[in-house]
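Teaching assistant's notes for section 4

Start the section by putting this record on the projector. Ask students to predict, before seeing the second block, whether Lipoprotein will look compact or extended. Collect guesses on the board.
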Amino acid sequence: MRKFLVFLSIVSVLFLAACSEDGKAEDSGEKVKVKIGVNGADGELWPKLKEKAAKENIEIELIEFQDYTLPNNALAQGDLDMNAFQHIAFLGQYVKESGEDIVPIGSTMLAPMGLYSEKIEDVSELKKGDKIAIPDDPANQARALRLLETAGLITLADDFGMFGDPSQISDNPLNLDIIPMTAQQTPRVLPDVAASIINNGIAGQAGFSPNEDPIFKEEATDESTHPYVNVLAVRGEDKDNETYLKIVELYQEADIEEAIKRDTNDGAFLVKLTPEQLNDVFQEMKK
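Reveal the predicted structure now:
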């Protein structure tokens, strides 16, 4: 009888020890480090997201880039785990041209594009032959030209599509001199042009209020803006990675939405596209 009781005692101890070990393993998860490429990390958005992720045992390291090409190249080459700097149209064009397998896994924000000027206060003040600067990357160049068309300044060809260029302007009554250039240069040339179309994020970095300062800007309330919704992107092989999807979930929460508004002076706002919407727009942009 005594031997049996000793045996039970040993089994009980071993069982409790095993339970204790299981609890420790479950509760002491090691931090997963995730490198995210960004095109500017000022403001409260990223520090807040890093803080939220840390509570989920995710350590976010931000890698900053100064142009729009390197973050995708770095992601494709494995130097990054994710990037967050581009809209769906830009990513679609990059994938189409490069053949790299990069996909969006979550929508982040929409940042309406605006026309800025140091010389005039309304598009009606533009004169014949005035110079207008626009971004030169295919997606944003086409977007800028559509903005000029919406403003009533030019007419685009029927087959303009999502990635048209100035050669597809069918009517230009003021004979405006439209000058494509690197997006980062568009605010710097304002003293030398009548107006410049500046991406929302770059405008904010240059000290403008994207909500108040443009003399004309995109309407951001309908589906036509979906190609220009920014995204978190990963390599195709990582599209179902639970850690990366958790970061998407954290990004789309209310406190990040408020941080976006404060960081951009209400010039940008959070957009939550469904996975189906995201994929549909992305597939269209790759055609």
